[in-house]
Amino acid sequence: MTYFRYPCPLCMASRRVHSQDRIKPAPQWWKAPCSHIECSLHQLAPYIGKIKSRIAGDLVERYTKSGDLVVDPFAGAGTIPLEATLRGRRAFAADISPYSRILSLAKLSPPPTLNEALKRTESALLEAESLPTPDLRTIPSWVRQFFHPDTLRETLRFAAVARQPGNEFLMACLLGILHHQRPGFLSYPSSHLVPYLRDKKYPSTQFPEMYTYRELRPRLFAKIHRTYRRFERPSSRGVTFRQSAIEHLKMPKRFNALITSPPYMNALDYGRDNRLRLWFINPDLAELKDADIAKRRKTFIDGITRLADKLEKGLTSRGYGVFVVGEEVHRSFYAHPSEVVISIITQRAPSLILRNIIADDIPDVRRTRRECRGIKTEQFLIFQHS
Ligand SMILES: C[S@@+](CC[C@H](N)C(=O)[O-])C[C@H]1O[C@@H](n2cnc3c(N)ncnc32)[C@H](O)[C@@H]1O
Fold this sequence. Notes:
Number of domains: 2
Number of strands: 8
CATH architecture of the largest domain: 3-Layer(aba) Sandwich
Largest sheet: 8 strands, mixed
Mean pLDDT: 88
Shape: globular
Radius of gyration: 22 Å
Bound molecules: S-adenosylmethionine
Structural class: alpha/beta
């Protein structure tokens, strides 16, 4: 039994469970893997909590039409805006994270052809080679421990060039090969999604080849080739990205749809989990520390409340608002995030009607770790402007 704090707009009873018959299962084909068929831009670099591209694409198809302006204020890896632009929609994307900014801009405005991408990479590598050799004593030890010193020097010089405005695609490619244990990556053996050294599993005494210099150039070119393997060029017409917290975000005055997955209430730690990539994006940024759980829960509720106000004002008549919400069971919560979202939208955006709820299992890799019994399902809350 799961309880919630507000009267449930579906069954109109307080502190009772949803009537499960109102929740429809996700189409079976959503569950099938799609990494072998999706546009390879989706695979530029990993991002925790990223939605599957085939689900994002289906939501865009179902709830918008060609030419529509689709808004995603929690864009993350830019999956929803990319699927929208690939399908002839316009996209307004935003996120608080600088990593999201790099990835979204790289995906939404990549070099138009493989040749162009290779040319830009070659000239950035040349420019990087002309920079002074970095003094590694100025680099924090937690960063140094991931790399062979010569690899790190090369990577730092390239990052200095990739950080220049307009070079987001190059930065995204660099971040995409920054850490992992495979030979195509730059770090010592480490995990891919979240940066942890795997020196216990792969000790240098037994795996000395994993601790040698890793040249940047061939790895970067291989990454570019992989990125253009199933390349589809997104439409650059009407595409915007804003780096902003939801509370300060200036949304377009009118938009045809909102499709978004808000940060799970307690689940993921975007600052900690991306700390190495964030450091390369901007070494001067204080580490992005996520708030404690109680504060995060309040931030989630405040964020959805602000968004509800913007939705009420900006969504066009008959337009859809789609929220993808992870269902989390937490010891100290008695509210499911989806129920919180439904309550807030119902109260703050009375023009929106809840049409449908679709439930889908979350694959193991995307489940959360901390203090949760685990996110087991994701709910797709489909609202429509009356
Ligand atoms: C579940 S993820 C979105 C994933 C995205 N749909 C994708 O496919 O990659 C939630 C996003 O919300 C962002 N976020 C967290 N707090 C935020 C805030 N206060 N304002 C704006 N964005 C925020 C995080 O940086 C994260 O990228």
